[in-house]
Amino acid sequence: MFKTVIVSCAFLVSTLIASAALAQEANTLSPQEKSQGWQLLFNGRNLDGWHSYLQNAPGRDWKVDDGAIVLERSRTGNEKDFADLVTNAEYENFDLKLEWKMTPCADSGVMFYVHESPKYSQTYETGPEMQIADLVCTKPDSQVLYERSGDLFDLMSSDVERVHEAGNWNRFEIVADHGHIQFFQNGYKVIDTYFWNDDWRKLVARTKFAQWPDFGTFKRGHISLQGTENKGELPIRIRFRNIKIRQL
């Protein structure tokens, strides 16, 4: 019996080591993902396929470092330099996955169905957001329901215990399928709702988004990484990697 346990443990350890050695390289697609129709939105080398909102290219505070899209900013400066990053392409029904990590107390988000037009000065005037915030110390967001990491920002609250502390990678997934919206944080479903029905319109009407009549109405739009929040310890750094999408 004792010998069997030792052999089993040794096999488990060797299996884990082998699995780690075969871990998928960041910003790549496995053969299975390719066969399923996944596409990379970030190649790990440059910001091809992205630009800052209402601009022709990424702002100066966005760069690529060590296989990640990095925003590094202060609390002041020219807003054009840290304006939200958006995809060149638009998406309708999709499964989006990405990873992010940040410095303590920072704040960001992932928006979708963003309609880019001079009519709207900011991405959040049209695009709903899956919130990014340090659970421990982002103020006031970490103390406010509906504004914590994984929330459908200012609309629906998630199970906030699913976010890792600052400095660790977190996994986000947004599934948008003909109005059925699901958020996953680190593998756990945290939001499950429907857009564009009467319940959705009533929900939006009770929030600050009611001041923007086109918010949450578009059924196709850009994916956006938020850079305009100035919360957190300086210098504020937010990293994104393994950004991939599958159209449904």
From TrEMBL:
It comes from the Bacteria. It comes from Dyella mobilis. InterPro entries: AL/BT2_dom (IPR010496). Residues 37-246 form the 3-keto-alpha-glucoside-1,2-lyase/3-keto-2-hydroxy-glucal hydratase domain. Pfam families: 3keto-disac_hyd. Residues 1-23 form the signal peptide. This is DUF1080 domain-containing protein. Keywords: Signal.
